[in-house]
Amino acid sequence: MGGVRLELRCPQRVGNIVVDPQIDWSFDDLLSELNTIDSKLQASSLVASHLTKAHSSKIYDFGYAEKTRKAFIMHVSDDESDDDDVETNSRHVVTGNRFAFEEIYLSDGVDSDREPTRGAEWSLMDKGGVVEGALIELSHEHQLSVAEEIRTTISAFGTDLTNEKEKLTNALSRAEKIKEARRELDRKRDLQYQRQIAEELDNHLTDVQRHHEYKSQIEEKKIRDDAAIEEAKRKQLAVQEEKIRQEKLKAEEAKRQAEKKKDEEVKRAALEAERAAKEAADAVLAESEKKAADVAASQANVVKGAESALKLEERRLQMYNEVVGENFTSEMDSNNEYRKQASKMARFIKTITGTKENVRVKADELRKLMNSTCPQSANSGIFAHKIVSLCTCANNDAVLYAYGHVIVMVTSQVPIALEILIAKLNKECIFTVPKYLAYSEKVFESRDAHLRAIGYQEDDGKLENTDTYLERLTSHVKLYGALIQTEVNGIQNPHGIEEGWKWLARLLNALPANLYTIVALEAFIQVAGFALYKRYKNQFKKLLNIISCDFLQALKDREDPKIKKVLMSLETYLQSNQFLVEPVGWRLQDTLLSHNFTVSESDHHQQYENPSRGYQQQYNYNSPNRYVYKR
After folding, report:
1. The CATH fold of domain 303-630
2. What dihedral angle (degrees, nearest 10) is formed by the CA atoms of 117, 121, 125, 128?
3. Segments of 335-453 assigned E as strands
4. Which of 298-312, 313-327, 400-414, 515-529 has the lowest mean pLDDT?
5. Which residues does 373 contact at the CB level (< 8 Å), separation at least 6?
6. At 431, which helix (H) or strand (E)?
7. Domain map of the chain by residue range?
């Protein structure tokens, strides 16, 4: 059976109701339209409750055969309306299967009697419109059920949409939390990775630094080995040259002997003639020798010092004159090349400080200069001259300790340079021997001549004052005290701590107690007292007791204020046991760690103990020379 198409013979829009809905409505438009239909249906149900049924005589005939079909008219009273006018809604006209809308007059039930022309009751429908009314009622119920289903579906759809939206919101929130957690985890991992990179970089830099230090040690060892090889070659060459020179001397001596033998025959006759004159001259010579012996005896009484110290001084001065030259100072000023070399060495020596790195660098530079183009003898003389002269400019004892390290490191490559330096120090300050020249009218022409002999300097014919001389004396003795206690790892100091013990013994045994000797003694003990105590312990304390009881006691009756000042300072040093405290600058500072280290008692003992070449001191109270040295 084919479908039936219904067409409306009425306007497509009545009020806000659209008969033929559009097929392209949106969801919001559909909801709006359904809400509108729902409101209209509710209004219609409200109108139906006020309908009244008319008498059958008023119902029109709905037949299809005769006259024009008339629509049924419904009047609905509106209780909520306030005005008396009749509202015009819509009137249904039923014609077969088609529907038409006509106006339906609605009036208020209370005021319905105001229209007398309409009668008491209205006809609701004709007799033949029951089926059509039932159809309309069913259609209306069907529309309500469909609208209810649509609303239910829309509500369920909205609920599902809301639930989905909440699920999506929760999912987005969880995703954001997961994302934030991953960001935090990534940040922590990045931080850990950066920390690992920093640690690896630190370890790498440490390894690089160790590698550089290792390479530096290898280079230093190579330099020392090369220098030792060169020194061995020089010694071998010197031996060969000495052998050739001895052979030449022997040849010359043989030649002279031959010539002498020939000349003897010629002179033999002349000797006979001169014999008489010689007998007369012998008497005059005997007279002059007697006078010379008297002068030598006077000089022997003038020079005060231990015999061993005087012999060492004489040997060093002889070596200095042979290697460097007696007038080397004036030669250094006149020679342009020597003057430039002296300027370079002075620049490095002036910048020496009490740090390990500085000492190492300056020692390396000075070693290079010692092996430069100038002869090694000249370099040794320049080095000794600059060290001795610039030590007086040191503003504290720490610089002098650093000088001692540089001297030991430089002279380890050139051993003769150490002897030259000590000889230069003995020439500049006789108390480093130690030695003293007593005043004697037979030996010295005047007091000024005596002062020049003990080391006073003269400027424009005028001698310096005593305070200036004592300051220079103190600097030289402190330099010597710093040198004898210096020990460098891997390098042996040939003029070590035992030389300091011998210096004290020689000064106390052979030199008189006066202003110069007490100043020298105080300067030496202040610099070397700590090291001597660490090495000799109770023996050094006994030596200090002798100084306090004998040496200082002999000076307490002197009225010289300079002596009293030095005497008080030395007594304070001994009574307060300052020799137990490590002096400032005694230990070189490490520039990388930037702090001082404390060293145990065993480390100090190991630093100064050298069993292979040490001396043993024995104290004898009954002997005039209290300090005896034994191997």
Report:
1. 1.25.40
2. -100
3. 436-437
4. 298-312
5. 337
6. none
7. 13-157, 303-630
